[in-house]
Specification:
The structure holds two protein chains of two kinds. By secondary structure, chain A is mostly beta strands. Chain A is built from no helices and eleven strands. In chain A, strands 2, 4, 5, 6, 9, 10 and 11 form a seven-stranded mixed beta sheet that branches. The mean pLDDT of chain A is 92. By secondary structure, chain B is mostly beta strands. In chain B, 0% of the residues lie in helices and 50% in strands. In chain B, strands 2, 5, 6, 10, 11 and 12 form a six-stranded mixed beta sheet that branches. Chain B has a four-stranded antiparallel beta sheet with strand order 3-9-8-7, with no helix packed on it. In chain B, strands 1-4 form a two-stranded antiparallel ribbon. In chain B, 37% of the residues are buried. The model of chain B has no long low-confidence stretch (mean pLDDT 93). Classes of the chains: A mainly beta, B mainly beta. Chains A and B meet through strand 4, strand 5, strand 9 and strand 10 of A and strand 5 and strand 6 of B.
Chain lengths: 115, 115
């Protein structure tokens, strides 16, 4: 079974704090993703990584950065948290491949509240 | 422009009946993949079914089937014989090539199954 874990289910932080969200997958997947989920907007891609130390911006990267030092771990960093970053954050992983199913496997999510 | 449109924010269905969730998509790429995910209240996204743009037959996975109408650019999910455990949010998503890694998600449809 593919397992994607996230460090916290719920997190409360203050405006201006630096926030780290950790994601670990145990299936040796090359690709990892960070999404945020907001009501009425679905999931929006923040960043993804297709290899160690490689990253690409998604659709909404502003205010976020990422780190991938090991294949199994992908971290999302909020350099200076703001209230508009209050959201559900979902991590996912997948194998690479073109034209194939290669579905993404998701973690349980972290609900972040910034006060 | 919105790549995935789910026009039904919420639906109610009676237990044991079938329900159809609408999804339309927008792409000019001839090669793409369509996915449906289920998100229960626990938050984790669960992959349900996949349809490739060149697949000749509509995809089926147990009680889930996909009504794929390529010319109309629609990929509706049909859940047959609804169960109480089907109550969840359902997301339609698309992967286009050459953006092979990324998924674009719709806003989601909440399904509530009534006993």
């Amino acid at each position: 079974d593919v397992k994607v874990t996230q460090s916290s289910r719920y997190l409360v932080k203050r405006t201006g704090e630096k926030v780290f969200l950790e994601c670990v997958q145990d299936m040796d997947h090359e690709n990892m993703f960070w999404y945020r989920q907001d009501p009425g907007l679905g999931l929006r891609l923040i960043y993804f990584s297709y290899d160690v130390k490689m990253k690409e911006k998604g659709d909404i990267p502003e205010g976020y950065s990422v780190s991938r030092e090991k294949k199994e771990r992908f971290s999302l960093i909020l350099e200076s948290a703001s209230t508009n970053q209050t959201s559900m954050y979902l991590c996912a992983s997948s194998t690479p491949g073109q034209g194939a199913r290669n579905e993404q496997f998701f973690g349980p999510g972290t609900r972040l509240t910034v006060l | 422009a919105q790549k995935i449109t789910q026009t039904q924010p919420g639906m109610f269905v009676q237990e044991k009946e079938a329900v159809t969730l609408d999804c339309t998509y927008d792409t000019s790429d001839p090669s793409y993949g369509l996915f449906w995910y289920k998100q229960p209240s626990s938050g984790e996204m669960i992959f349900l079914i996949y349809q490739g743009s060149y697949d000749q037959q509509n995809a089926t996975e147990g009680r889930y089937s996909l009504n794929f109408q390529k010319a109309r650019k629609s990929a509706n999910l049909v859940i047959s014989a609804s169960q109480l455990g089907d109550s969840a949010m359902y997301f339609c998503a698309m992967r286009e090539t050459p953006n092979d890694y990324k998924l674009s998600f719709g806003a989601g449809t909440t399904v509530t199954v009534r006993a």
